[in-house]
Design goal:
binds manganese (II) ion; 288 residues
Length: 288
Amino acid sequence: MNALSQNRFRFRAIWISDVHLGTRGANTELLLDFLRRTESDYLYLVGDIVDIWRMRKSWYWDQTHNDVIQKILRKARKGTRVIYVPGNHDESFRDFTRHRFGRVAVLDEALHITADGKRFLVMHGDQFDGIVKYAKWLAFVGDTAYNMALNFNTWFNRWRRRLGFSYWSLSAYLKHKVKNAVEYISNYETAVVAEARRRKVDGVICGHIHSAEIREVGGIVYCNDGDWVESCTALVEHLDGRLEILYWSKLFEADLSTSATEVAACDSSLSPTPGFLRSMASFARLKL
Ligand SMILES: [Mn+2]
């Protein structure tokens, strides 16, 4: 195809989420390119991989959607430890947590320890939707009330879905309050970081809001691996434990127009506002 397509990247761990297979939005072409050209000891699938929730109404599935699943299973066969943490769009798989399917483990949440010994809680993150609006004052209430709020949110959405209502939708929420998107994201981060602090881990890795980020918040490292609908991002751990976000669409585009060495140089992408504006635009259209 071109020069860089021969290049492969090796990482200790990779996190991807919000692929939304089964919908037209899933950017399977870029994801397949990413999966082909990267290798890792651990591959975490952080939820919303298959969009079962939307497939109930209408669905889209072509060969590339099969290829993504085949590619992941092949990695598992070849020794990559694949850990699948279901999200709200593939919630049906939550019934199978703590099971193993061949070499793929399904877990509600995972604990990842980096090469330099940092402990990270890995979860999809939808359980924080309902409490985002109250994130500020929830930080001050006791553990019991906080847990009740979290559980209530989970059950509330499960019942809504059983009764045929739609899930609480961020896009609908933001259509009315677009100017609050920034506040929403910051509240979401606050809620997730508070959970990490409660659980006494060094950091948290999640997805769900389609906004890739690595940020330290009050001593806790907040990581979001983004999505494969709009921004096409993955979170990776280098062999020395360093975390980084890869913007695969940028690498891919650069790949088509420049030489391999130049592309390798723009590999480093720790900008302070990664994909943020793009994510804002996608918020208006997507149900997260
Ligand atoms: Mn989600």
